[in-house]
TrEMBL record:
<protein>
    <recommendedName>
        <fullName>LIM zinc-binding domain-containing protein</fullName>
    </recommendedName>
</protein>
<keyword id="KW-0479">Metal-binding</keyword>
<dbReference type="InterPro" id="IPR035940">
    <property type="entry name" value="CAP_sf"/>
</dbReference>
<feature type="compositionally biased region" description="Low complexity">
    <location>
        <begin position="45"/>
        <end position="66"/>
    </location>
</feature>
<keyword id="KW-0862">Zinc</keyword>
<feature type="compositionally biased region" description="Basic and acidic residues">
    <location>
        <begin position="11"/>
        <end position="36"/>
    </location>
</feature>
<feature type="region of interest" description="Disordered">
    <location>
        <begin position="1"/>
        <end position="83"/>
    </location>
</feature>
<feature type="domain" description="LIM zinc-binding">
    <location>
        <begin position="297"/>
        <end position="347"/>
    </location>
</feature>
<dbReference type="InterPro" id="IPR001781">
    <property type="entry name" value="Znf_LIM"/>
</dbReference>
<dbReference type="GO" id="GO:0046872">
    <property type="term" value="F:metal ion binding"/>
</dbReference>
<keyword id="KW-0440">LIM domain</keyword>
<feature type="compositionally biased region" description="Polar residues">
    <location>
        <begin position="1"/>
        <end position="10"/>
    </location>
</feature>
Length: 347
């Protein structure tokens, strides 16, 4: 069915470990790791000799094309160029991403107006399917009842203050998941490098208290995306609707990307508070993530994508469990020596 949303992932700052795990020493005997370590630093020092300096405010995103890559940064990354333009342009929002953010703010500020708009759409509904003019049919699981429920919710909802701004760091965390899973046809909140929401947020800044991630597939316009997040068809808890109207959230990030199975996907993250790292560090991390995801998500033996929760780590690579074998005797290994990036069993 079109326009189907996934479940929300919520995290609480107090429930997340503050420790930073490093890569193991590959010069000695090692154990095949079934639980991934954090592959990206959760904090990047602001400047050498000033590890405790306060993060800089969020950089303003320019609508003009940047003149060139930042000093010391690599040139154009093929992965970034194929999805979001040159590597030095990855911090710009698209027009549609800005429209999604603006629609969320309009829904929070004027819920009754949104209720009227959804009510007008019901005239195009026949059974469990919308037949909008010049658009593909949109099927829903719960029929007209879920839309009537959403209309009643909006008419009883008190207007809320608009979100303060569209956060650069939150949007980059959204983009990591959208770029990673979209081009591989995967759904869900876990990246192919087993990164979850706290790990993605930690790449780009310091987050406070709660954060909430939402994903929607197959819809094209910003208005359709926000309406479906409010209606929350097929999600009994109505968590997407609840999170959009949480009084405490102040920031949001948005990313929209192509999806090889569902055509489009949109990732939205709300946060109570988030402080981005300075602009050069955001650029550096985004480039690192693009290269890392491209490398770590493919098994070095068979060159196929390793799905989340279905791999083991050895020699700084993620393998299918049946592919992680000794390069000499081909037996499955649990402990190994590494030689030129290749695992060998102890025998």
């Amino acid at each position: 069915a079109n326009g189907r949303s996934s479940c929300t992932q919520s995290v609480d700052r107090r429930a997340v470990d503050d420790k930073t795990e490093g890569h193991p020493d590959l010069s000695m005997v090692k154990r095949v790791e079934h639980r991934p370590w954090k592959v990206a630093p959760t904090h990047i020092p602001v400047a050498q000799g000033q590890p405790d300096a306060a993060p800089a405010p969020a950089p303003a995103l320019s609508t003009d094309a940047p003149s060139g890559p930042p000093e010391g940064a690599p040139g154009e990354s093929p992965r970034l160029a194929s999805i979001g333009g040159p590597a030095n342009a990855v911090l710009e929002f698209t027009v549609q991403e800005k429209e999604v953010f603006n629609c969320i703010n309009r829904a929070r500020a004027s819920p009754r107006e949104y209720a009227d708009g959804i009510e007008q759409q019901l005239k195009y509904m026949r059974g469990n399917t919308f037949w909008f003019p010049n658009k593909p049919a949109l099927r829903c699981k719960e029929g007209q009842a879920v839309y009537i429920e959403a209309i009643e919710f909006l008419r009883n909802q008190k207007p809320l203050p608009p979100l303060q701004r569209m956060s650069t760091g939150l949007s980059l965390a959204c983009r990591d998941l959208a770029w990673d899973t979209g081009q591989k046809g995967i759904t869900g909140h876990l990246g192919t490098d087993d990164s979850d929401l706290p790990m993605r947020l930690g790449r780009y800044g310091k987050w406070k208290e709660g954060a909430f991630e939402q994903i929607l597939y197959s819809l094209d316009t910003a208005e359709e995306i926000v309406v479906q997040l409010i209606v929350d068809d097929g999600v009994p808890s109505r968590c997407h609707r609840r999170d959009m109207f949480r009084p405490g959230i102040t920031l949001a990030g948005v990313s929209i990307a192509d999806h090889v199975v569902h055509r489009k996907m949109c990732v939205v993250v709300y946060a109570v508070g988030f402080e981005e790292y300075p602009l050069p560090q955001l650029r550096q991390m985004q480039q690192w993530v693009a290269q890392h995801i491209q490398r770590v998500s493919k098994c070095p033996a068979c060159k196929l994508v390793v799905p989340p929760f279905d791999g083991v780590f050895a020699c700084s690579e993620k393998w299918h469990p049946h592919c992680c074998t000794c390069a000499d005797c081909r037996s499955t290994i649990t402990h190994y020596f590494a030689h030129h990036g290749t695992p060998y069993c102890l025998e």
